[in-house]
Amino acid sequence: MTWLILALVAAVATSLTTIFAKIGIKDVNSNLATAYRTGVVIVCAVIMCLITGSIHTVPSFNVRNWVFLGLSGLMTGLSWLCYYRALKLGTVNKIAPIDKSSFILTSILFMIFFFGPTTNNGDPLTISMVVLSMALMLVGTILMLDFHRKDGIKSKTWVVYAILSAVFASLVALFVKMGLSGISGDVGTLFRTIVVFIFAVTIVLFRKDYQGISKISPKSWIFLTLSGIATGVAWIAEYTALAIEDANPVAVNSIGKLSILLTMLFSAVILKEKFTWKTLLGLGFLTAGIVVIIVFSL
Known about the structure:
Blueprint: H1 2-24, H2 30-52, H3 63-89, H4 92-100, H5 102-113, H6 115-119, H7 124-144, H8 157-179, H9 185-207, H10 218-243, H11 249-257, H12 259-269, H13 277-295
Helix pairs in contact: 1-10, 1-11, 1-12, 2-3, 2-9, 2-10, 3-8, 3-9, 4-8, 4-12, 5-8, 5-11, 7-13, 9-10, 11-13
């Protein structure tokens, strides 16, 4: 169950990514923040590839590897740009549920393209549990979205960005799974991160979002760096798990979504964000949906 441990590590790291990003992005342009922390992820991936020696396997990449890892990088870049814009405009406790709901579309896509591993070779009970899991997560997400509470937010534009982020994120795991065929997770992470970096830097240069970079506080740089490191750990762990042949892709993806528990806890303790009973009930449904699919995927 090596993939299970790796998926759990990814979940913890993912939760730290969101909190560090929320703190670090306070006075920073969201596009610039995306480009910077992606650069940090590249450094982490290069170090890991050098340690494992997988950097030497790059020449063995086939067309499938290049295409799907490239697409996953592009989808990641689009998802991040929308996600950090949402964080800039909204609160973590509102955005996190929408972000995690990407699991629903991801599960549908995995059932279509990886039917055997996802459904335990067409087992009716497993299929039923996947559907039940998606239903629970959908109900949980709806309950957690309290649009009547302002929380100091003047505009609901964050909703659009959060939804777009979830849609793009749902495609990432599918493309990664397809692109990792026959290669290690760390070198796959390195290549797709480079794609994200090029995409993000292009946006920054085109929009001239680098202006005012000298005014960014040391605190913001520190937390954006920590966010990048956490992202690097999460990606390497999750994609290494996905690359393991007997790993259920839906289970791996589901375990990663458990990060919402830590994310919500950190948002309450560190960011002092408030929760209603409706939000907590929704969190319960969301968590139940995740746990159901994990149990029946093992």
